[in-house]
Amino acid sequence: MEDPSRLDIQHRIWLLSLEGLIPPEIETEVSRHMEQTKGGAILDVGCGSAIWSAQMAEKFPSAQVVAVDITEPSQRSFPSNFSFKSHNLANGLPSEFEAGFDIIHCRAVLQHVPDPQILVDSMAKCLKPGGFLFLVDVEVDSTFDENRKRLEPFIYDPALSVETNLENSRGLSWTSGWLHMLGLSTRSSKYKAPPSMIQQSESLNELMAKVCWFPIGWEDKALEHGRELGELSAEVVEGLFKLSRDSFKKVEGVPSEIKDALIERGRQEFRERNAYLSGKNEVIVIVEMGGKNQISFWIAEERRVT
Ligand SMILES: C[S@@+](CC[C@H](N)C(=O)[O-])C[C@H]1O[C@@H](n2cnc3c(N)ncnc32)[C@H](O)[C@@H]1O
């Protein structure tokens, strides 16, 4: 089970990075849509501690907010327009949810289900026409240096001895290697980054995408909340290092000396170097036929609007 306090810290990181529960780039569109529906319905898929859904229920008091997870959230009091449904997402959402929601939010969940495309397609079916789907995920393949350049991960080569693997590691990142193995231990082999899953879906079009950068344990003065983001990200990463010894047991074919080295050297490296984690946030909307690309923009370090 996920640690609710870590999920709440992660929520704060997302709030600071995306500048709100709904990114400001899309806020006007979403608010206009919610006003037109005179209430509306919001769904949080794999809600965890349900902090996002509880705050959305407060932000949109006339909307009905439904949160779904396999585990019921604890430690929180919920507004009266909030309800929880226990459900296993492995085969998608319950059929009674179809065409029922104006906003669907799915954050840090796709990496945990056996076939994420099934869940993406099912969420698409549960949106009302013109509704918004928010997919939020962190890239768990590598970390990035201060210039946001990928730090190539150390990856175990089974054709070589353990000693040769360790000797050949010069120039490679142990923190990236650790993160890569964490991805292998938690993600389904069917996982793809959200943009590919959207492309494969028949009805979803991308409205906006945003890349976020999380400095791990250092103050990034270029970011508005660089210091707080650095502190919170380090807390999350330290927590994940603690969990990883158990998670790594699931990875077969990698000797325990290599797993130990990834944890110990990865932790050491992240404490000594200024590195980033990168988060990918996708906001997708279903638009009427012919309306494709009506509103379409991509936001990264450099802003481009078409
Ligand atoms: C990393 S947490 C993210 C929680 C929340 N979305 C957030 O951002 O704070 C992943 C959540 O997915 C849920 N989950 C994973 N597999 C699931 C499944 N098969 N069915 C339902 N929920 C699942 C877990 O219980 C957990 O709450």
UniProtKB/TrEMBL annotation:
CDD domains: AdoMet_MTases. Transmembrane segments: none annotated. InterPro entries: SAM-dependent_MTases_sf. It comes from the Eukaryota. PANTHER family: METHYLTRANSFERASE (PTHR43591), RHODANESE DOMAIN-CONTAINING PROTEIN (PTHR43591:SF110). This is Methyltransferase domain-containing protein. It comes from Agaricus bisporus var. burnettii (strain JB137-S8 / ATCC MYA-4627 / FGSC 10392) (White button mushroom).
